[in-house]
Amino acid sequence: MKENIIKEKIANKTKIEANIVLKGVRSKIEDAKNRLTLLDILVKLRKCRLRDCVNKRKNLLLEESLSGLKILWQQKLVNYYKEENYLKNMLSTAEAEKHKKRENEIQEILTEWDKILFGPNFKYHEIVFDNLYTFLNIRKDWDNCVVNGQETQSSSNIPIGWIIPSVACNSDWAKYLNNVDVL
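RE: above sequence
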């Protein structure tokens, strides 16, 4: 149980760190988008000034610098999107693995309970009752084992969890410890 808690803490810490990195990548994406917007506005401003300029002389150096900056930020934005997608996939894969692991643990526990209580070939959680009468008969038989029929005639609740008799149980329970086929 202590190992599970430690594993859970490590998984949560890793998830928090991945979320922090993802937040950083998203801020880089926003920054890149803002820079590209700024460069587009500068290009538009330059074009407007050139139209209004009497001699319409072009400054090729400025235009090349703006184009180069725009290309650079577009490449960075593409890289940031790739990084964001990678981190999202990593987080979703980790969540899927965690869910699958938990499902496997639950299945192993159910199988272990089946084997302990009913023998190796019986799976109580896969029972399908053909009709209500069959279910009621099984429930009645269960209640006879849980509550002494002489003490009360009403049914009892199935106990929370399964109760496994101890090795030093009374003679009523002892016959069920060794007999695997009893149901």
